[in-house]
Inverse folding.
């Protein structure tokens, strides 16, 4: 019995190819059943996410399984997709790497583990899992957990939005009482505001020179629009300012903030300046309770985190190797019996 | 923490069991501190795993020492400066165990262990052990002294938490925080922790003053005024923080400075 794996991912296939190959949950039972009908296949698990479509199977004939899978994908997408494929022991290592986030677009992302678990559950519900596949996936979940807890692979935020969230959490703790104000309805500010919203910020106020644009963005993210001339009046109530106006000069200056800060009852203020040229005077960072981060400093932190993650890959690989060895030993002992 | 004047000290060595328990607790605190440092260096920090257990064992050994010492001297083991320092570090250890078990403030162990180590080392290694010939001991004065030290245990840990706040604030202000900032708790949580410990310490200190007053023993003017001043400073800080009249930065600075001042006067008046 071989463990076989084949599929496409973000490394070898474009988004449009992945879209064509993607298998929706409701189609999963049919596709898994088709897979099991292929000669030699005793069990199959299908993983379909935005970055990959992969088949994991226990089979006696890997070549026939590959051809069968290719045929199924061809029927769905109408074209021959370039599939990679692995058999034991590479297939085992591959699943462990996938579940641990080492094969992801953003190294160390944790969403994939949930997706792998879901794929396994769906297959189990459809009755297409076998003892080796069950053991393989349970082992993969354990490996992913160990990798996450014993290394720094998930440490730190790696995008501007998530860095902003992490910093905000280090200043305010829980964000459910924080109010956010967006100055200038740009794309990055919107993304950053959405990241903060995902952590449950209390409210978002959008202020833009063109009121209609502010209103449109506010409607989109469930916030409140405000005329640009009035933003200073609401300053006292906000905890986080995301600024990305196209102003040619700084709009958040020491002169402007100093008197307002006195009325804030010592509450900290987190200013995220995403504008170029900058909206915030660098000197405001020296004001008590004010934490200023511009696009450069946010990107620097993201790069630092990514660097830490990359450095951790070697440790993760060696952990995976160790676990793969244990699983392969079990598989061998099973064959002997 | 302020003892009646009518004590005379007689030098005496620690018994072998007392020494063993002190050595063991010193080892555990040192282990806690160095394991955290090592974990930070190798970027494999898992807050709470080693610090908490090691400090727990350190506190257990210190407790054993205090029991032995109490039995040996037939008094609460806070009658000499070395004993007081060990008792103070023991109290800080206990407060850490009470609040440091929370995952988000567990890195506090890395900051608490060195403070405990300093007190314990001064008390154990650098000051000669002594016993007190008691002239005017009563239970109220022992309660007063013990409560004072426990109060300063809470206030000492408030100082640790405030120092962590200042450190985290400096990291965030730098705009390029070092990787350790990921492991430190949020500033707001540290401010809340500091404030709670300060109020706890203040309540215990007030109770110790009540016990001191009930003992009926008069204390010298300097001791009285220094005690009152410390109590007043802490009270003012607490009230100003609650009323939002003081920034979190100034509050943290105040807590650290007053604790350092308290330590300074402890050596003078104990």
């Amino acid at each position: 019995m071989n463990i076989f794996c084949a599929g496409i991912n973000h490394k070898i296939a474009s988004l449009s190819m992945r879209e064509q190959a993607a298998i929706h949950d409701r189609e999963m039972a049919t596709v898994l059943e088709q897979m099991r009908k292929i000669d030699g296949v005793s069990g199959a698990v299908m993983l379909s996410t935005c970055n990959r479509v992969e088949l994991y199977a226990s089979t006696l004939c890997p070549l026939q399984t590959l051809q069968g899978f290719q045929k199924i994908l061809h029927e769905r997408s109408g074209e021959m997709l370039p599939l990679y494929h692995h058999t034991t022991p590479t297939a085992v290592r591959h699943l462990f790497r996938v579940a641990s986030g080492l094969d992801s677009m953003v190294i160390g992302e944790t969403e994939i583990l949930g997706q792998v678990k879901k794929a396994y559950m769906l297959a189990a519900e459809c009755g297409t899992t076998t003892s080796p596949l069950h053991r393989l996936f349970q082992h993969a979940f354990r490996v992913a957990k160990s990798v996450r807890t014993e290394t720094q692979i998930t440490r730190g935020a790696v995008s501007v939005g998530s860095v902003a969230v992490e910093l905000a959490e280090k200043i305010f703790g829980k964000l459910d009482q924080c109010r956010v104000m967006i100055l200038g309805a740009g794309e990055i500010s919107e993304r950053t505001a959405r990241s903060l919203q995902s952590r449950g910020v209390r409210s978002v106020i959008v202020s833009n020179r063109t009121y209609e644009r502010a209103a449109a963005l506010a409607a989109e993210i469930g916030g409140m629009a405000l005329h640009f001339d009035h933003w200073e009046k609401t300053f006292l109530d906000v905890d986080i300012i995301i600024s990305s106006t196209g102003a040619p000069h700084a709009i958040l200056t020491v002169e402007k903030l100093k008197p307002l800060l006195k009325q804030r009852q010592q509450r900290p203020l987190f200013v995220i300046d995403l504008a170029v040229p900058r909206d915030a005077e660098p000197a405001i960072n020296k004001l008590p309770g004010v934490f200023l981060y511009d696009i450069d400093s946010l990107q620097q932190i993201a790069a630092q985190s990514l660097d830490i993650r990359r450095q951790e890959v070697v440790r993760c690989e060696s952990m995976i190797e160790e676990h793969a060895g244990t699983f392969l030993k079990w598989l061998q002992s099973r064959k002997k019996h | 923490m302020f003892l009646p004047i009518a004590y005379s000290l007689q030098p005496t060595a620690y018994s072998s069991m007392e020494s063993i328990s002190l050595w063991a607790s010193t080892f555990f605190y040192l282990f806690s501190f160095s394991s955290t440092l090592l974990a930070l260096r190798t970027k494999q920090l898992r807050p709470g795993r080693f610090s908490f257990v090691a400090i727990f064992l350190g506190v257990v050994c210190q407790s054993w020492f205090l029991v032995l010492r109490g039995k040996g001297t037939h008094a609460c083991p806070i009658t000499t400066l070395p004993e007081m320092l060990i008792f103070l570090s023991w109290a800080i250890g206990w407060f850490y165990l009470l609040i440091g078990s929370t995952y988000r403030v567990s890195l506090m162990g890395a900051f608490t262990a060195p403070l405990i180590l300093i007190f314990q080392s001064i008390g154990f290694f650098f000051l000669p052990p002594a016993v007190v010939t008691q002239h005017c001991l009563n239970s109220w004065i022992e309660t007063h002294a013990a409560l004072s030290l426990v109060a300063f245990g809470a206030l000492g840990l408030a100082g640790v938490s405030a120092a962590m706040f200042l450190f985290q604030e400096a990291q965030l202000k730098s705009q390029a925080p070092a990787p350790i900032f990921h492991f430190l708790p949020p500033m707001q949580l540290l401010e809340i922790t500091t404030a709670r410990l300060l109020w706890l310490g203040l309540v215990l200190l007030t109770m110790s003053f009540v016990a001191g007053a009930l003992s009926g023993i008069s204390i010298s003017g300097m001791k009285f005024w220094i005690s009152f001043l410390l109590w007043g400073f802490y009270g003012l800080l607490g009230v100003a923080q609650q009323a939002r009249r003081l920034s979190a930065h100034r509050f943290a600075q105040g807590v650290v400075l007053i604790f350092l001042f308290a330590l300074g006067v402890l050596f003078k008046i104990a």
The CA atoms of residues 144 and 208 of chain B lie 4 Å apart. The first strand of chain B starts at residue 7 and ends at 11.
